[in-house]
Amino acid sequence: MRVLWISLRRLSDVFSVGSVRRTLSSRAMRLVQFCPKGSEGGIRIGVEQEQGHGVIDLKAFDSSMPSTMREFLELGKAGMDCAQRALASGQCVVSHTDIKLLSPVTRPDKVVCVGMNYRDHCLEQNAPIPTEPIIFNKFPSAITGPFDEISLPDNSQEVDWEVELAFVIGKKGKHIKASIVLHKMAEITKMQIQKSIFGRI
């Protein structure tokens, strides 16, 4: 399981948003990891109803379903088919007020990031536009849930935030053609990143 971070402003240079919607529209679902409030260790997988009315607990709908997103994605088509059936049934719904949303995926093998990948950012930093991607990584332990607290370093003089787009890669592959790259992706999600800007010592 890999997570690839890419700047949201770079998305239009990778593929058009319209083509993503057409490609994913027949199977687009919002899958979430959550735990019941007061039960921080009990991770569950759910699929969110339209308009955010509630979350269908997949484990309650089908006891054979795993409890973590990583295990669920490894099921491939069987897992997605179950989620579609659960969504159509409207059963086993839990309210947002009774659950805590977690990060979409916990403990991926790696988090690969692409830096300086859009022209405006290079110009803002007075940096040369790279001719090849600048790759760096984040530790999987840096991933937090959408409403979790983020600890800030004591020696940081300024903290900035960015909205990033994360691609969860659900299938193994190598030298993947652009025409089939979306079929390798299990999820596209927004991530909010806090950056610490350290003062000079």
TrEMBL record:
Residues 110-178 form the Fumarylacetoacetase-like C-terminal domain. InterPro entries: FAH, Fumarylacetoacetase-like_C, Fumarylacetoacetase_C_sf. GO terms for biological process: small molecule metabolic process. Pfam families: FAA_hydrolase. Transmembrane segments: none annotated. Keywords: Metal-binding. Belongs to the FAH family. This is Fumarylacetoacetase-like C-terminal domain-containing protein. It comes from Astyanax mexicanus.
